[in-house]
Amino acid sequence: MHHTAVLPRSFLYVPADRPELFAKACNGPADALIFDLEDAVPLGRKDEARRALRDWLAANPTSRQQIWVRINQASIMADLQAVVSPGLTGIMQAKCSPAVLLEATAALTDLERSRGLEPIGIIGLVEDARSLQALDSMATNPRLVTFAIGEVDLMADLRMARTLAAEPALDSIRARFVIACAAAGLRPPLAPTSTAIRELDAFEQSSQKMLNLGFRSRTAIHPAQLTVIHAVFSPSLAELAAARDVIDRFDLAGGGVALDVAGRMIDAAVVRGAQETLSRTAQRND
Length: 286
Description:
Elements: E1 10-15, H1 22-26, E2 32-36, H2 46-59, E3 66-71, H3 76-83, E4 90-93, H4 98-115, E5 121-126, H5 129-133, H6 135-138, E6 144-149, H7 151-158, H8 167-184, E7 190-191, H9 200-213, E8 217-220, H10 224-233, H11 237-253, H12 268-279
Parallel strand pairs: 1-2, 1-8, 2-3, 3-4, 4-5, 5-6, 7-8
């Protein structure tokens, strides 16, 4: 049941205990929303947030955006009982581990059956070293759409400092997510959240790096980050034209030797890259 649809470019976090923000977020430019029942909501307001989100989902069964909900690993059933509904695209499972993923899968199966819903996908948010080691085994779960990186928590668990010296090691960890997803036939992972709300030049540079590493989407904690995400993760008109040209030349060759506009050979791998570039035009919701 691996989900193969192209994921959006941008996922904007929305605190689930702030219902006054729901309509504004839905009318904004984000491709997808992640209503957050986890870190964004104080412990004493979890029940209130569940009720607010349940009521909003019931009143808004359709949306131009994908609607995801980040749930707690300690209250999986309570969170899912509140949000599993026709308006839900999928779940982001916080602190995803093999055991947590199995628990969420079983809970979803029960709720879908009792509520007459189609299967709901999961994005696994990995935040600790043990779960990092289990990427390949978790990737075989048929509900898993892709992974996301809880980079702050993961670095703390690994005792890594956020310094330039540590960046190569961090990039190697990011690459592990890309490799695990590609090997299992999942969608590319979500690039990690950044607190660079005002430092948009730095955010653009890090987003470009994530794109080059193989990420195709990124989470945002502030609407100001969305413009950057859309600019970086959207193929340019020139890239789209070049991709179409590669495919056309390959098709015209009819299995023979084909060369691109620069005289380089076009093989099946080059064509796959061109097809992937064209597929990313489906990421936007506008």
